[in-house]
């Protein structure tokens, strides 16, 4: 064991640094990258927010719902004949087709996983009117099991990267290149969020979800099928997580790992709380904000601090403004 | 003496049960064999343990608690609108009003669950201010809940001891090493809690978990738990809800006994017969405002109150 | 008197044993306990073939692992089982205990060196302080948020260990140990023989169990259970809920830190690889499995969690899967855990119940997690 010389706990030891130059120098790069990262957080955050709004449950296993989507997208690529190695150049039509196929696969797998999870793990508890601690422990157990299923199936190492699309700069703002993947991620996330928002606010099913979120008992009395609403809530959350999974894999092709969900999941949850849990638009705002802030933190304090910044942010928000920036509301007036 | 105390120690009807009572004998077992005279003495002893600080000469008259222009707003909703009334030491004050009049809200202000937007609550002349809820209990205000809120997994006895703990000063360190104060307070708390269970008439189920008690017992257990905190003012929030007439009768008896033991009682109740039968004075709320106050007989005749209860449009009434 | 009501139909054999045990006098109970404790102490020396984990894993070290988990479970049980606060960052306190031990004893650290037996209480103290530091801002949060915040805390501790002052993956070698040399010149406490460490840990477990038991049967334990059952009602009944939650948190943290310091000493090496959230969940599983709120239960749970994967090496790889599944199944079918007895909360309860109604208190197999809201109990 070679002991490198460390000026340990003496002066100038780098617990933390404040590199303002790096922060300012990479400001726009961090912002743009943060927005695209944040879009993924936002999509996953919606799943937490929806389920929390309806059931008052932190669905810990949602991160694994997302990871299942990542693997689905990966194996779609694989099934389409792509292999780890240099990126194949594809025609635009082909590329769109393949990405769409992967999107559909990922959304289907994540959506189905979420619904099965709800059926198998949570529904029996609901029927028994179990206290919330029991729900939470079940959620943790489910997250654990799903993670381990992937681990036993695929082992501890991440899958080798398969790339369909190389990140290439499309245009430049503030001296910073904006890549095709960043544009696709942000735009697609925005579209999906608008669709989700419309679904919740404009459709009959969405009204049902909001009704249950506001007052489950009254909603049931008014003829809303609560079980169905809950199933749809999990489904919608799962679908969005599946979409996030594809963008995540495009961005980080080596990201298909059994434990890839944990960190992303807790950050997405942070995003949901940051914006105001139970609040759809809050999830978007929170996601983007978190993506940007943790990039700034990384530049300012150093690479090790990226995740710490996110966790500290989570704790600080919960302590000082647990209702988030936009307040908690899936229905209009939550008490 | 009260019938209420008897329910816990009903002498008849359990003939063959005596065999199961061990030789050590319980208080309950002893009660069965007492003469009337012994019994009276015993009940006096129980009452002594129940209310150690009671004023034997109940000093009715001076103000115990005063609501001074208390207003409470939730956003735009005015839950209490400049409500003032006083509770005098040793009386039973009824707080009545139609549904949603702000009775329970009033309780919540008195017990510190809500802080008044404006106005003050004074206990013995001192404002409650921004005290924490537990501190208000320690000052001497205890309450029961309209929807029963017992510690379900605890036995009845333990529930009452939690109330008694409000007066205890054993530190965590003291409990860790079982110091002398810990021993003293534990012993006293158990004694007092047992006496209180007997007092409210549920001693026979002392060892059962609260959640397994019959409904009427749960209501009485709530009262015992509140009394265990040695309150100056006992607030009862619809204690007779869901009771049949016979049970209500027993409860009225219990409330009177509590008052006779030197407690002051604030009572929210829907059942007019019960309120009129047991209270010394009544305050009437409607839409968060005090619309009347006075003796039960006066309230019964008060046109504003009648209007409030019959739903007459209040243009003619003050 | 009425016959005792058993609300849930738990295994009746278990119930019978429990009733028999509860019916015994203190003296009789001790007569059973003392030989049992002696047997537990003797285990690593006896190394019974049925129980042995060898050749796969040194039995004495396996026993130390079990004891270490048991200690952790007792501590976490104070927080989760008694006070009902879901702490998912418990590993953070364990890690702090381990790092305190390393920082003050390892030659890789530049801090002043202290004897291990001084560092042990120091680790307890430091983790307790961290428990208060984390608890005082966060314990006002509602239950599920608390779970997330503690999860975040555990991760922060782990991530901080990556930073250069804590030496990341390189870690600290040569963590100290209690003094003493054997006849053959070797240290009594070393990294290859778990037996002395096991004895030390079991002794500490007994001390901690007694202290925690004292708290349980006092106003402190009652306050915790009252908070778990209905926090608002507890506060209105005069329980300073925040203060007692903080105590639960601090006491739990201290016990976790103690276990961490023991772990660091036995293994002799601390780095950032051993303190992930997965282990936190394993700790939680230990508490929930046996029956949260029940000391015997959590000891059983910890034993299962730590021992089974070492005994049946073929299961080792699947342990997380198995325990995760066990959690789900348990929550659905038996949320009170394998043994779900309630704890006693009165110092003079036995004699009081005897005198009052001539029978012991109701001890059914429900507990914390089985608690269901009483709705519309008929009159």
What are the SSEs and their pairings?
The complex is a heterotrimer of chains A (335), B (318) and C (379).
Chain A: H1 20-25, H2 27-55, H3 62-79, H4 92-127, H5 132-154, E1 169-173, E2 176-179, H6 180-202, H7 204-214, H8 216-221, H9 226-251, H10 260-275, H11 280-301, H12 305-320
Antiparallel strand pairs in A: 1-2
Chain B: H1 3-8, H2 27-32, H3 36-50, E1 63-74, E2 77-88, E3 92-96, H4 103-110, E4 118-123, E5 126-127, H5 133-139, E6 141-143, H6 156-165, H7 172-176, H8 180-200, H9 215-228, E7 233-237, H10 245-260, E8 264-268, H11 272-278, E9 281-286, E10 289-294, H12 296-301, H13 303-310
Parallel strand pairs in B: 3-8, 3-9, 6-7, 7-8
Antiparallel strand pairs in B: 1-2, 1-4, 4-5, 9-10
Helix pairs in contact in B: 3-8, 6-8, 6-9, 8-9
Chain C: H1 12-23, H2 26-46, H3 59-82, H4 90-105, H5 116-138, H6 143-160, H7 195-216, H8 219-229, H9 231-236, H10 241-267, H11 277-290, H12 295-311, H13 319-333, H14 349-357
Mean pLDDT of chain B: 81
Sum up the overall morphology of chain C in one term. globular
CATH topology of chain B: Rossmann fold
Q: What level of helicity do the residues of chain C show?
A: 55-70%
Q: Would you report the number of β strands of chain B? A: 10
Oligomer type: heterotrimer
**CATH superfamily grouping of chain B:** P-loop containing nucleotide triphosphate hydrolases
Radius of gyration of chain C: 21 Å
The number of E-state strands of chain C comes to 0
Helix count of chain C equals 14
Secondary-structure class of chain B = alpha/beta
How many distinct folded domains of chain B?
1
Strand order, largest beta sheet of chain B: 6-7-8-3-9-10
Q: Rg of chain B from C-alpha positions? A: 21 Å
- What is the global morphology of chain B? globular
Low-confidence stretches of chain B: 1-32, 314-318
Assigned CATH class of chain B = Alpha Beta
Architecture (CATH level 2) name of chain C: Orthogonal Bundle
Q: What is the first-to-last residue Cα distance of chain C?
A: 20 Å
The third-level CATH topology of chain C is ABC transporter involved in vitamin B12 uptake, BtuC
| Biggest interface pair, counts | B-C, 74 and 57 residues
